[in-house]
């Protein structure tokens, strides 16, 4: 059983900062790419940032220069540092990870999602 648990969301004023964390736990053999998505009320889920197992990063244009994704492989944790927040960043932020599980001698890979954490930016 694998779980992703996010933390760090909350209410912040425009221009402020928040740091999200997402910790993976369970019978994990290896974690490949990890990422953050967001879904605002009534809108489609949007990719925010990804980071490979080797540390290569990718961002959606709207957060470049403001958000930083990082990971601690020893802790199976991915972070999202969000600076210069605007009301347009208000959303539920969800963690995603591609995780390999070893069971009975074979390895299987699938994507896992966290439950989401609410970020609200007031103007």
Percentage of residues in DSSP E strands? over 45%
Q: Largest beta sheet, briefly? A: 7 strands, mixed
Specify the number of helices. Answer: 0
**Proportion in helices:** under 10%
Number of strands: 11
Radius of gyration: 15 Å
Q: Any idea what the shape is?
A: elongated
Give the SSE order as H and E letters. Answer: EEEEEEEEEEE
Q: What structural class do the secondary elements suggest?
A: mainly beta
Roughly how many Å apart are the termini?
Answer: 41 Å
Low-confidence parts, pLDDT < 50 over ≥5 residues?
none
Q: How would you state the average pLDDT, rounded? A: 97
Write the layout of secondary structure elements.
Elements lengths: L1 E6 L2 E4 L4 E9 L3 E10 L6 E6 L5 E3 L7 E6 L4 E6 L8 E13 L2 E8 L3 E6 L1
Parallel strand pairs: 2-11
Antiparallel strand pairs: 1-3, 3-8, 4-5, 4-9, 5-6, 7-8, 9-10, 9-11
Q: Could you explain how this protein is built, in words?
A:
It is a single chain. By secondary structure, this protein is mainly β. The protein is 0% helix and 63% strand. It is built from no helices and eleven strands. The relative contact order is 0.32.
Keywords:
mainly beta
Short synopsis of the structure:
With 123 residues, this protein is mostly beta strands.
């Amino acid at each position: 059983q694998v779980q992703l648990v996010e933390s760090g969301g909350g209410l912040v004023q425009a221009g402020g900062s928040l740091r999200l964390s997402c910790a993976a736990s369970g019978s994990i053999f290896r974690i490949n790419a990890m990422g953050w998505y967001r879904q605002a009320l009534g809108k489609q889920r949007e990719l925010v940032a990804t980071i490979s197992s080797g540390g290569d990063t990718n961002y959606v244009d709207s957060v470049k220069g403001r958000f930083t994704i990082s990971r601690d492989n020893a802790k199976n944790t991915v972070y999202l540092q969000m600076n210069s927040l605007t009301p347009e960043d208000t959303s539920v932020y969800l963690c995603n990870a591609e995780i390999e599980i070893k069971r009975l001698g074979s390895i299987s890979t699938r994507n896992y999602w966290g439950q989401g954490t609410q970020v609200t930016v007031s103007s």
